[in-house]
Design goal:
Low-confidence stretches: none
CATH class of the largest domain: Alpha Beta
Order of helices and strands: EHEEHEHEEEHEEHEEHH
Structural class: alpha/beta
Number of domains: 2
Mean pLDDT: 96
Shape: elongated
Bound molecules: phosphoribosyl ATP, magnesium ion
Length: 219
């Protein structure tokens, strides 16, 4: 990590689609089409900036350990990572969704020890602990909606947007655990050592977020 370079770790998938236009408004444009390339790291129009494209769950790790200065990831991933080893100065207000529990429609969750399947094991554990409920947490990596019907668990914790995926699989949302949107996180040392570079990027991103909000409320 040189003092003059800025490495930005981006989340691939739906966040990338929404974040590239914001970065462009903030003056950062990849040197090639990220979607057509199999590369994982990209140069851009600013010679001192590099963009990494990785899984959202890995973004906090890169930023906390300082291999990336800045990260862009969903609040769900940041909550699950669960560290205070970086700053979270900006909400980009994109890729909004909710972390929720969900169960088969009408199911009574009255067993004394609830079996909960999730990708978000820490989020789930903390939430049910705060509710005073005894739980066994089962870690899954995907297709969570199937798990209750296969007898693996009583309920799940997942991110929900429209709720269509839940409904299509016979589930209903239950508890609203947290609102999720895409956040900018910054390595603690980078915030000091690269103060000017980081602050000017944060400012331009904030302006892009504000400008987008104005156009979306105007239309
Ligand atoms: O890439 P990987 O497989 O590890 O993760 P992923 O598939 O969850 O990644 P991706 O690209 O889908 O999402 C990355 C980030 O987008 C998440 O960390 C969230 O912050 C944000 N996000 C916003 C969402 C959704 N909305 C969302 N709806 N992430 C996932 N979903 C999924 C959800 O898991 C469920 O399968 O979409 C389905 C539910 O959508 P609805 O509209 O049917 O409710
Ligand atoms: Mg995916």
């Amino acid at each position: 990590m040189s003092d003059k370079n800025l490495v930005i770790a981006l989340t691939k998938g739906r966040i990338l689609d929404e974040v590239l236009p914001l970065l462009e408004q903030a003056g950062i444009v990849p040197a090639e089409d990220i979607f057509k390339s199999r590369k994982l790291i990209f140069a851009c129009n600013l010679p001192h900036v590099q963009l990494m494209v990785i899984r959202g769950s890995d973004v906090p790790t890169y930023v906390e350990l300082g291999s990336a200065d800045i990260g862009i990831a969903g609040k769900d991933m940041i909550m699950e990572y669960g560290s205070r080893g970086f700053y979270e100065p900006l909400d980009l207000e994109i890729a909004g969704c909710r972390l929720m529990s969900a169960a088969p429609i009408g199911a009574k969750l009255d067993s004394p020890r609830l079996r909960v399947a999730s990708k978000f094991v820490n989020v789930a554990k903390n939430y049910f602990y705060e509710q005073g409920r005894q739980v066994d947490i089962i870690k899954l990596s995907g297709a969570l909606e199937l798990a209750p019907f296969m007898g693996l668990c009583d309920c799940i914790v997942d991110v929900v947007d429209t709720g269509n995926t839940l409904r299509a699989n016979g589930l209903e949302p239950r508890d609203h655990i947290a609102d999720v949107s895409t956040r900018v996180i910054v390595n603690r040392a980078s915030m000091k050592i690269k103060h000017d570079l980081v602050q000017s990027l944060l400012q331009r991103l904030q302006q892009a977020v504000t400008a987008n909000k104005k156009t979306s409320t105007a239309s």
